[in-house]
Each structure stands twice: as structure tokens, then as C-alpha cells.
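Appendix B, Record 12. Input sequence as logged:
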Amino acid sequence: MPSHPIAAPAEAGLAVSVVVTCYNLGGFLMEALHSIPPGCEVIVVDDGSTDPETVAVLDALDTEQYVVLRQPNLGLARARNNGIRIAKGICIIPLDADNRLRPAMVDRTLEILGARADVDIVHGDGEYFGERQGRWMVGPFDFALMIERNRIDACAGFRRSLWERVGGYDENMPVMGYEDWDFWLRCSVAGAAFHYVPEILFDYRVRGGSMLTETMRNRDQLVAYIFAKRELRFLAPLRTDYLRAMEREQRSRPLTGRALLGMAWSRLTARLRGQPAPPGAYIADQ
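Logged structural output:
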């Protein structure tokens, strides 16, 4: 969880704040910034970059056009949180410095969150570029699929009030890389509503040497950390049951969120009747 309280915006301002986090990605940063449509507050958080090219690009940014926050190398979660803390927008869109935003991301966030008080998060598809091409088909939010692995990129629009309610991004992750998954899981168990837009809303750069490589080497440690959290630990046995069921079916027919809830219900009814729980069912410890 964040190590210090989350402050409210200093003043009312623009409806959307785009928070761009950058660590030694100066070669891509301007491409990311130029992809953001006019009318947004743009906050660039430098997470202690040491690369001379990146430092030069950051030094040259027009501070009339961008809010530039420089900090020591504190990690992705704290960089995002610090950027959101100073944001004036009531809607937040995170953007990694090596990716690109599409105007539709801002448009759909404003349209949907403005019209529907029951929606907290707007997300859509991505377009791969760089070392891979093609459309990243995300699809509607499915809780069962989300507890298996992350399905939604950081580049989504959400209410600042939701970020405040769940405590922001976890600044104590043992290894960087799963901040988004952890955040979406905590949002979902807090009752947040996801709205999927079947359009390409951002461009996702695939490149060698990205943070994802290190993340995958530490996947088991990160998964254990996430599902040991007080608000998420009840999901750990449910996730295990889901993965076992997926393995039995050889991933040919993934379980839906409805089916996953059915597994939990079958264990509950079995326990109430004093019977052994059926395989593949789950109920949280009492």
C-alpha cells in the first residue's frame, strides 16, 4: 500500500489527467507525449532517470505544456501514485513512456464515466507495435480470467475517487511488473465496475529488455505476494481450483466468472450439509 496518505487535488481542473511514467525511456517519451490529444492535463513523472538522452529530453520539456515531476528512483508504483496525487483531473489515464495513447481513450473515458455513475473503469483493446504487430483483443472484464493473470493494461481510464478508495498502486511490491494486475484485482474486490469498449484505445510497444522479462523470472514470488494480501487472500484457493480446472480441460473451455462462482457455491452448500466439498469447488475459511 502507499506509504503516505493520498492527498486530494489542490484545485478543480481538467476532467482528464494523463500520467506518464518514465525511467530511462527518453528515446520514446516524445512519441508518447505527442500521442496525447489536446485538452488533457499531462503529468510526466521522471522516476530517477540516469540515461543522458532521457535526462536531456526531460530537461527540454515545456513546463507550460507539461507538469514535470522529478523524483529519485522509487519504482513504478510510487511514480504513478505521486503523479496522480498532484493531478487535477477527476479521471486518470496512466501511460507508460514507451507506449502511445489514442484519442478514443480520452473520448470514451469522458463519455462513459460522465454518463454512467455505475462505471468506474473504462478499458479497451490495444494495438501491438515494435517487435510484434496485431491487435490485442482484451475483451470484457471476466473475474475468473483476471485471477488467473492480468488481462487489462495500465492504459485505462478510471475515476480518481476509485484510486483513493483502494489506496492507490502498491508501492511495496517485491519486484516491479505486476502493479497493474494487483491494482485491478483490488479494484474488483472493492466492487469497482469495469466497462469494456471494443475499440483500439492505445498502442503497446513490444521490445526486448523491457521490465516484463525480469517480472516473469520472479512470477511465483509476485503471485504469492499479491494473493497473501488481506483483501485478496480469500482468492488464493479459488485461483488454485480455477487453474486445476483449466488444466483438466486443457484450456479448451475456460471457466467464466459465473462458473467460478458456481464452484464456490457448491462448496458452501456442501459444507452446510456436512458433506465433503466436491472437487474444483471453494469456500473461504471461516
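Residues 235-272 form one domain.
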